[in-house]
Structure prediction request, 211 residues.
Amino acid sequence: MKPPIPKEFWDDRFSGDEFAYGDRASRLLMGWCDVVSSEAKTALVPACGEGRDAVYLASLGLDVTAVDMSELGLAKTEALAKARGVMVKTVQANLFEWDWPDAGFDVVASMFAHMPPDARPKLHALYKKTLKPGGLIFIEGFSPEQIAYQKRYNSGGPQEVDMLYAAGMIQGDFDDLETLAFWTGVETLNEGKYHTGPAALLRAVFRKDGD
Prediction:
């Protein structure tokens, strides 16, 4: 399956010296740092971009694999990891062509990995496939209400409403997992040039059955 946004777009976005989405980790991950650091040893960050979340998870002591199709994003991931004194394994791949390991990770951290309706459930099924029993999936993205905030504040996200994270849609994708946290609301972002200003967000945490 072809990626919904071509590799060239992301190479261009990640080509500057600055971090397009900032270098601070997701507030969702930071809020769960105690649980992650005590329960998890391995993490996967799909569509890792420039690596802010992968590097943060590595700073918590996890063995982190970061996957993205942009070499420029992965180069910045490696540079950020080096600057912060941690190690991150980087993999250049189309997520739909990568060989996802079965039950390979304790954590899957998917931040703003928006996909069109035909691709999203397939990707989320891969998250569940690669998650170990008892493992955690973190999901963060823009909700459909973000269309209005884009127009007013230019605060980021896809322009197509069907690529945004409707609450029922995300619950449905993970209805076979335990929901540990689920939130939708408006928050002011300050995450680099492309995520700045009031924004409508969805954040969720799911756990796979440990049996």
